[in-house]
Amino acid sequence: MISFSVNRQGVNLDVDPSTPLLWVLRDNLGLTGTKYGCGMAQCGACTVHLNGEAVRSCVAPVSRAAGKEVTTIEGLSPDMSHPLQRAWIAEDVPQCGYCQSGQLMSAAVLLRENPRPSDDDIDQAMTGNICRCGTYPRIRKAIHRAAGLMSTGGAK
Amino acid sequence: MKQLQTSVLLAFAGMLLIFTGTMSLSRLTSAAEKPATKTTGSAAPAKADGALFVDFVSVLRHPRCMNCHSLGDVPRQGDDGHPHTMNVRRGPEGHGMTAEKCNTCHQDHNLAGPHMPPGAPNWGLPPPTTPMIWQGLTDAQICRSIKDPKQNKNRNIDQLVEHLTSDKLVMWGWDPGEGRLPVQMSHDEFSAKVKQWADSGAACPK
What domain count does chain A have? Predict the structure, then answer.
């Protein structure tokens, strides 16, 4: 039995400890906002937070989450009010959308550590999240917008 | 009867000669070993000139070690030591930064399969305050840097030996997972050489 918290709710699961966290989130808990991309930590589509830090859930065994707090895209805010979510909608960032939950979770860690990132800061930090639609310019724009929302007290 | 007595005496004298000769030969052999002992003794200058460090420095120069002790604030990958993909950086504590920290992808163990992230406990680079960069250094410079408490996280020689021989992240170099060359000198041989170097004064090459 493995116990941890997902989006501020406790869960107890009887699963093989080596099961990738991604499969537990999607198959056992029905949280399908997090996507499977490459399965080898190369693309970033499966990025979630583990105690606030970005983790590639496709390669992290669920045992790593024991006793910790997991946050998925569904838990980034309770009502789509996170500045990044608002900025993403305002900038109409997604095209196919498959990579976007991972992009948002990585961007959230970036803004926590660097509330006013430059273009270079964003490019550096987001390099590990691949978007095959090429929405990078809009991602960068939306991160700047979210940073602005946060700095003007726009964050809820 | 007299002839018999003479024969016995001659035989005894012969045995005495053989015995004496053997003893002399034995002394000669011992004398011949002494220079060998002296040669071992002449290892004293060898110890002082850092030859014992040079005996194992190839391990420190191996890509499994050098990829995290290379120039710049980036880790390197592969047997060719190319910069880590995804623009991964050293970060404020040597464990990456923002959404690209080391344990974003690396676990405390290797993942099975080609091109999967390798892993070991405390995966990361030396911190920026003590980056412990070896790339481009001479053997003497590497030796001095690993001994310098200001560069080696304040380790004394015993702690340095422990790090080199027992740290799980260092030992990963002998079990690096699929697609990566392990360190070629055996871990037992490396550990023995490191301990021999430390026990003899941890001298560095000039």
Answer: 2
